Amino acid sequence: MLREFFPNTNAGAKLYSGFLHHKDCFCKIFDMKNSISEALIDINDFLESNGYDSADAESFDEFNIYDRKPVSISPHGYQEQFVLTIERDKIATPQLGFVCQELKKFRDERDWGQFHNPKDLAIALNIESGELLETFLWKDSKDANIEKVKEELADIFSYALLLADKYDLNIEEIVLEKIKKNGEKYPVEKAKGISTKYDEL
Ligand SMILES: [Mg+2]
């Protein structure tokens, strides 16, 4: 499935620690390290988490250039770095992969991965859902503090992403699968405008 990550501005590009060479070309610099294969670990992490095919060392030419549209990789700065270039042409990628990558970076910088087992992530997700409910407690929906709702939703999504990651699940895929399943359980002709559960339809 194609997903859109392409940053629209240089400010957006900075989120991905890169820059827009021009409006249709995103660039990001990676250290060459000791070998192409070593540099490729970081480059491929970035590509894969944004929905692109990874690059393999054998596909580099004699000048250390990789060119597989929309992705190209070439030496930069006296061979000490690589520049990864992604052209907007034919692309589209997930924001979700990038968000998950940032969440894991935040977690790992604090060495919190040791606490993030599936059970505790599920509990944390539930607690955050409770905090979301609290924003509505004793008041009309319209009076809930939207800033608070935003924060709790962010917490819920964060734990959901981390939990899905634990099982190597692709969020887009599992949600789309579920929509399909629900479509079968609740055919429009039977369920339209009715809140009855599927087994009573
Ligand atoms: Mg919270």
Your description of this structure?
The chain has about 200 residues and is α+β, with helices and mostly antiparallel strands. It has 2 domains: about 10-85, no CATH class; about 95-190, MazG-like (Helix Hairpins, Orthogonal Bundle). About 45% of the residues lie in helices and about 15% in strands. The chain has 7 helices and 5 strands, in the order H-E-E-H-E-E-E-H-H-H-H-H. Strands 1-2-5-4-3 form a 5-stranded antiparallel sheet. A hairpin with a 2-residue loop joins strand 1 (about 20) and strand 2. Helix 3 crosses helix 5 and helix 4 packs antiparallel against helix 5. It is elongated, with a radius of gyration of 22 Å. Mean pLDDT is about 85; it is low at about 90-95. It binds magnesium ion. Magnesium ion (MG) binds near residues 128, 131, 152 and 155.
